[in-house]
Amino acid sequence: MTVVAHLVGAERIRLETPTRVILDELSLGLESGDRIGVVGRNGEGKSTLLGILAGTRVPDDGRVTRRGGVTMGVLDQEDRLGPGTVLDAVVGHREEHEWAGDRRVREVLSGLLHGLDPMADLESLSGGQRRRVALAALLTTDHDVLLLDEPTNHLDIEGVRWLAAHLNARWAAGQGALITVSHDRWFLDAVCTRMWEVHDRTVDQFEGGYAAYVLQRVERDRQARSMEERRQNLLRKELAWLRRGAPARTSKPKFRIEAANELIEDVPPPRNSVELHGMAAARLGKDVVDLIDASAGYDGTPILEHVEWRIAPGERTGILGRNGAGKSTLLALVDGTLAPSGGKVKTGKTVRVRRLTQQLDELADVQGDRVLDVIGRLRTSYSVGDAELAPGQLLERLGFPSQQLSTRVGELSGGWKRRLQLLLVLLDAPNVLILDEPTNDLDTDMLTAMEDVLDTFPGTLIVVSHDRYLIERVTDQQYAVAGGRLRHLPGGVDEYLRLEDAEIAVVPDAPVRSAGLSGAERRDLEKQLSALDRRMQRLASQTQADHDALATHDQSDYVGLEAIAGRIRQREAEREDLELEWLDAAERLEQS
Question: Which of 214, 262, 402, 525 is the 20 to 30 A CA-CA neighbour of 245?
Answer without folding.
Answer: 525
